[in-house]
Structure formats: C-alpha cells, structure tokens
C-alpha cells in the first residue's frame, strides 16, 4: 500500500460536512495511511451536519504536528469554529512551512485564510467563500480540485473523488 507509514491529522469540530470528513479518511486508510481524528477534546463525539458522528482520538494539545505527514481540514460549518483555535492555525502553519500536504475542501479555506498562508496560491473552494479566498491573496478557480504545491483544495462533496486522489498522490511523494 502506497501510503503505509504515512500519518495524517484529520481535524474535527461540530457541524463538519459528513462526507468531506469521512470520505478522505476512509480512502486514505484504504491506501495504508494512519489517520488520527483530532479535536479540541479527546474522546468527544462531534456530530456532522447530517448526524454522522466522529470521535476525536486526540486533543489539539496532545499532538505534535511535526510527527505527521499531512493535514485534512473538512468543510461544513466546522471550519468557522476550527479557525478560532490557535493550535489549529499553528498546525496549518507548521505543515505549510514544511511543505507537507494540506487538504481543504468547501468552507475549509477559512482555516487557511486565518492561518495566513494563501497569498499568491491557486485554490478553489465552495463559491460562497470565493471573495474571502481572493481577499486573502489567493487566485480562485472554479474547478473540482486545484493542486498548488502542497496545498490541495476542492469545492464540495461531488468533487471528493478527484480531491482525495490528488491529496493521496501528494502524500505518496
């Protein structure tokens, strides 16, 4: 399996977009990656927009982002909460500085905006935050997936297959 020995942080918070969290996790696990659900509270069960649960295995203060190979930020309303945690912004900045894959889909771009890492990057997102992305200095494109170096972005659930493939391809490098 091409992603054996790869460790990925999957951020979780209330009202994540169910498919945008679980589809990438399951696909990466199928390829051999270890994916840890990380939230503000370890052991807490967070509930997605459509009722799918996700239990955080670790809290933000229990992990060291340097020990991971990539990070996934789901969409839904969770990004608006996640971007308020200094630890989350630090994780994203550490991944960015190390040029490790950062996956963001739908509203997850808000987290990257708050981490201040999008200036000059080519990205996509849900069209609803296009202005936020461009105001952060990014070049926004209406495409299923955009790969700009180590940042992999996507629009919404119908784009999950090409998004997760592109993310896995970057992680495999």
TrEMBL record:
Limits of the DJ-1/PfpI domain: 6-168
Pfam families xref list: DJ-1_PfpI (PF01965)
InterPro entries: C56_PfpI-like, Class_I_gatase-like, DJ-1/PfpI
SUPFAM superfamilies referenced in this protein's UniProt entry, alphabetically: Class I glutamine amidotransferase-like
Domain of life: Bacteria
Molecular-function GO terms, alphabetical: peptidase activity
Gene Ontology biological process terms, A to Z: proteolysis
Database matches in PROSITE patterns: PEPTIDASE_C56_PFPI
Keyword tags: Hydrolase, Protease
CDD domains associated with the record: GATase1_PfpI_like (cd03134)
Record flagged with keyword ATP-binding: no
Family: Belongs to the peptidase C56 family.
Name the record gives this protein: Protease
Lineage, uppermost ranks: Bacteria, Bacillati, Bacillota, Bacilli, Bacillales
